[in-house]
Write a structure and sequence with these properties.
It is a single chain. The protein contains ten helices and seven strands. The chain has 228 residues and is an alpha/beta fold. It has a seven-stranded mixed sheet, with helices on both faces. α9 links the parallel β6 and β7. α1 packs across α2. It is globular.
Length: 228
């Protein structure tokens, strides 16, 4: 994962790379404001997920959350991918307590929350891997309760959701949100897979605000690259 800030775990993007990420996220933010008229008027729960593992949903969700916090919007990033958690290690945070401990009642929300990881951004990591991930997150009531607790002090709740193709718990998670964005890796994900995922959102009654095409590479001649 590459972020637009330096973290304790890894160095963030710098120079033109960081500016490029910021510009892309700013463009995404602008498009979302057009898609959702209620933006800025209420607390919103936005899910980022993919069809298959490794398409970059976590990276996109993280950078979007960092951007919102940097804009003065009180934001929390929620790691719902209990199967392959990465956020705690990336940001150099304690892995637990997190969502797992909150859901099983062994930790309060204030114990699971990591405050001001970057300006304006709090994070709730996945926590210790449960023996049954679906049992932990498959109950929509649990994730709804979590979002209600976090909504008391956060304007935006950004959810990093596990891939639809491998995680049945993704369905109840996205059902508890206001909007979903599908992250698709360029030159990898097939069109039929994207269409199937969008149909899944429609069946669940969850608005799909759009598709984020991730990891697009442009062929730039060396002499042009040197200009920048």
């Amino acid at each position: 994962m590459q972020s637009i800030v330096e973290t304790r775990g890894k160095a963030g993007a710098t120079g033109n790379g960081a500016q490029s990420i910021r510009d892309e996220v700013r463009h995404l933010w602008g498009r979302l404001q057009l898609q959702l008229p209620q933006f800025g008027n209420d607390r919103l729960r936005i899910a980022f997920c993919s069809t298959h593992p490794g398409e970059g949903a976590t990276s996109v969700a993280t950078n979007f959350a960092i951007f919102l916090g940097d804009q003065g919007r009180r934001t929390v990033l929620i790691e719902c991918n209990l199967r392959h958690p990465t956020l705690a290690d990336h940001f150099g945070l304690p892995r637990s307590p997190g969502i797992s401990e909150y859901l099983d009642g062994s930790a309060r929300i204030d114990q699971a929350l990591r405050r001001e990881v970057t300006p304006g951004l709090d994070i709730v990591p996945a926590g210790s891997p449960p023996s049954d991930v679906y049992a932990a997150l498959g109950n929509e009531g649990g994730i709804t309760r979590l979002l209600e607790d976090l909504g008391e002090e956060h304007e935006f709740m950004i959810l990093d959701v596990p891939p639809l193709s491998v995680a049945p718990e993704a369905a109840p998670i996205v059902r508890a949100t206001d909007a979903t964005l599908l992250v698709v890796q360029a030159h990898r994900t097939r069109k039929k897979s994207v269409e199937k995922s969008i149909q899944t959102f429609d069946d669940l009654g969850v608005p799909c605000c759009g598709v984020v095409l991730n990891r697009v590479h442009y062929d730039v001649p060396p002499f042009i690259d040197q200009i920048f």
